Amino acid sequence: DRTSDLSGKSVLITAGPTYEKIDPVRFIGNYSSGKMGYALAEECASRGANVTLVSGPVALSAKSSNINVVSVESAREMLDECQKVFPTSDISIMCAAVADYAPANPSDHKIKREKQDVPTITLVKNPDIAATLGKEKRPEQVLVGFALETDNEAVNASEKLTRKNLDMIVLNSLRDKGACFGTDTNKVSIIRSDKSRTDFPLKDKSEVAGDIIDEILKILGKV
Ligand code: C5P
């Protein structure tokens, strides 16, 4: 019975982009809409899970009352919030498009346009949330990542799965029409830790979420 197959389970999901402050009015960000992460949260809630959705800035809201939305802005804040709930999460799905770098010294006043010089923004590396949780993961916990690749898709995605200690990675290729930032559809492949792979056709993001959760349940059945 799909409507209760996650009952009693706690699920952590990250979604959306992160914004990394340059000054009080500017940031470094990306085009992630958060739609895939929110669809996953609704799917898990509809199957009886308690969901914590750690969300970067998006134009979406969660519908189910079983979803606790924790709004964050930066990668650092997203990591801090994830670490609070990860120890008690049965399933964690890293769907956010986390910015790789953040300004080293965000200005506390608006940076003025210079008459001559173009400002230089020095960047520092952001923490890798999935990899950090991967190091803390216990054997009975399931950790799932996403990979957006433009070339050498399967090899790059499998390498990420190993490096971040994931149990499964969902690959979406930018080559596929309709599988892009902001769209309502997605075309994914799922790669498991034994490197076996399943390719799914282009579907609505809510149906993709159902396929992903079905796969996670198969892994949970084995641990
Ligand atoms: O290394 P890459 O960014 O391609 O990895 C993508 C996967 O890792 C996604 O699951 C994403 O949510 C996660 N990630 C993360 N923290 C980062 C970068 C990526 O959790 N700083």
From TrEMBL:
It catalyses: (R)-4'-phosphopantothenate + L-cysteine + CTP = N-[(R)-4-phosphopantothenoyl]-L-cysteine + CMP + diphosphate + H(+); N-[(R)-4-phosphopantothenoyl]-L-cysteine + H(+) = (R)-4'-phosphopantetheine + CO2. Pathway: Cofactor biosynthesis; coenzyme A biosynthesis; CoA from (R)-pantothenate: step 2/5; Cofactor biosynthesis; coenzyme A biosynthesis; CoA from (R)-pantothenate: step 3/5. GO terms for biological process: coenzyme A biosynthetic process; pantothenate catabolic process. The keyword Ligase applies. CTP binds at D100, K110, F146, K160, K164. Its cofactor is Mg(2+); FMN. Residues 11-223 are annotated as: Phosphopantothenate--cysteine ligase. Residues 6-218 form the DNA/pantothenate metabolism flavoprotein C-terminal domain. One of its GO terms (cellular component) is phosphopantothenoylcysteine decarboxylase complex. One of its GO terms (molecular function) is metal ion binding. Its EC number is 4.1.1.36, 6.3.2.5. Keywords: Decarboxylase, Flavoprotein, FMN, Ligase, Lyase, Magnesium, Metal-binding, Multifunctional enzyme. The keyword Cell wall biogenesis/degradation does not apply. Binds 1 FMN per subunit. In the N-terminal section; belongs to the HFCD (homo-oligomeric flavin containing Cys decarboxylase) superfamily. In the C-terminal section; belongs to the PPC synthetase family. Catalyzes two sequential steps in the biosynthesis of coenzyme A. In the first step cysteine is conjugated to 4'-phosphopantothenate to form 4-phosphopantothenoylcysteine. In the second step the latter compound is decarboxylated to form 4'-phosphopantotheine. This is Coenzyme A biosynthesis bifunctional protein CoaBC. It comes from Duncaniella freteri. The lineage of its organism: Bacteria, Pseudomonadati, Bacteroidota, Bacteroidia, Bacteroidales.
